Amino acid sequence: MVKLWQKKTRTDPDIEAFTAGDDPVLDLRLVPYDCAASAGHAKMLGRIGVLTADEVRLLTAELDAIAGLAKEGRFGIPREMEDCHTAIENRLTEKLGELGKKIHTGRSRNDQVLAALRLFCIDEAGRIRSAADALTAGLKSLSGRSGAVRIPGYTHTRKAMPSSIGMWAGGYAVALEEDARLLDFIRGRMDQSPLGTGAGYGVPLEVDRALAAKEAGFSAVQENPIAVQLSRGKFESTLVHALALFMLDANRMASDLIFFSMPEVGFVRLPEAFCTGSSIMPQKKNPDVLELVRAKYHAVLACQIQLQTTTAGLISGYHRDLQLTKKPLMEALDAAAASLAVLAKVVTGVEVDGAACAKALTEEVFAAERVYALVKQGVPFREAYRRVGKQYE
After folding, report:
1. Given the residues 38, 141, 146, 156, the one annotated as active site
2. pLDDT confidence bin for 4, thresholds 50/70/90
3. Which end of the chain lies in a sparser environment, N or C, as judged by fewer CB atoms within 10 Å?
4. Active-site residue, 163 included
5. Share of residues in the chain with pLDDT > 90 (%)
6. Known catalytic residue at 156
7. Which carries the bigger pLDDT value, residue 46 or residue 12?
8. Domain 121-193+223-360, what fold?
9. Span 225-236, average pLDDT
């Protein structure tokens, strides 16, 4: 057997290549998760009497072996097999004979794909959480080192009122912590097992969905089979929405650091090892890393839009369109994880120039303070505002 759905008629090679798309490459990341979900499914089949205890043992041992090969980069997915799910079942049949053909009892590729994707997303959300936590810790460390250093705060890109390195770093730390709480919620929402819903309408077999969920590593069961199919693409776009919020904060933080590190401003210095040069101008030390972090926000946002628009307009139930949700999901996860990690390194490495910061605190930055000094003496606010404002007319 090659394909799980193989018919008598041979598929046209061009159609075969087109419909497989990028899955043979993308699915390499899903192999361990499909193995975990398949092992949970096998244990459930053993509980309901479809498999014997020995058959469960043989299947789970081989699934563990496949997962191990995948983690070592030694499990391939031939294009003619389309995806990891087919490649894994073919491997089971190759190694275990007729027993390998029993693993698909009581499931469809629809709930199989969803189970693997959700387990993958749960792990990946943990990776993003760790990267965000590291960036937050870097910001707090910067505040601890240089938080008391005062700098001008800006509105409209013009000096406004006094701020500080601690206020700046603390603001982004709070924003990231708020993003992380949303990510945790979304991660919990995805922690629902689709196993046992088949192609979206259940299976004609008395399966134990709660047991399959537990054995596969899920915390709960997503009960309604149609809701399971409606959630494909939607859950992923929700996760990428959270990534986009992290990246929006990263985008603005990178812009601040580019501005703060301009020689004309000089509040902070980027380590030379973090900067790049010019092929024509030998003096250049460019903040390319921050510019790319800034740009990655737009890439993640594009992935979110692709996910949301791919699912729009489809009637309920599965459609092959949903295959195209996998790539933007993975691209967004990788872009966010890399951006947060490199930004944490930058924040940890920047040096604050106290003298430049103090020099930038020119007298107009304190105009509002002078207004309120008059207010404290009993002068009405609008009159105090007028008196101080005369100095800048």
Report:
1. 156
2. low
3. C
4. no
5. 92
6. yes
7. 46
8. Fumarase C; Chain A, domain 2 (1.20.200)
9. 96
